[in-house]
Amino acid sequence: MDPSEAKKLLVSDRHRLEGSRATLLADEHSGHPQQDAEATPQDSAEVSEQLVSRTDSTSELSAVESELADVLAALARLGAGTYGLCVDCGEPISDERLLAVPSAERCVDDQRQFEHPKHELTEK
């Protein structure tokens, strides 16, 4: 993939993710009002709903931050001249894969192996 095209895709992804992160952080801060000592107790269903909502927001924020870290790492590889080369085997990553996942650091085969490592059975 052309480095200028890769940079354009990665910078676009970075801006999108930074915006999502800012929105999630703002929602997190505005969505948890402090209760005063005289506030009426909430029922357990409402408390449970708030806990689930907080957990969902935290999970979503973690996913966005992880994806943002991948994009920043890809931009660093681009600057270092190693973008588009698999970090495991050193072979070029296909343009199709880079267009689909601009922050990809592994070729399809090595990514598959990374996600689903083969476990060898050991005899006891």
Q: Would you kindly provide a written description of the structure presented here, covering whatever features stand out?
A:
The protein is mainly alpha-helical and 124 residues long. The chain has 4 helices and no strands. The protein has helices at residues 3-30, 44-80, 95-100, 108-115. The longest helix has 37 residues, at 44-80.
Q: How would you summarize what this structure contains?
A:
The protein is mainly alpha-helical. It is 64% helix and 0% strand.
Q: What is the topology?
A:
Layout lengths: L2 H28 L13 H37 L14 H6 L7 H8 L9
Helix pairs in contact: 1-2
Radius of gyration: 21 Å
Termini gap: 49 Å
The overall strand count is 0
Average pLDDT metric: 85
**Helix/strand structural class:** mainly alpha
Approximately how much helix is present in the residues?
55-70%
**Overall morphology:** elongated
Major sheet details:
none
Detail the poorly predicted runs.
33-39
Query: Helical element count?
Result: 4
Strand content: under 5%
**Element-by-element helix/strand order:** HHHH
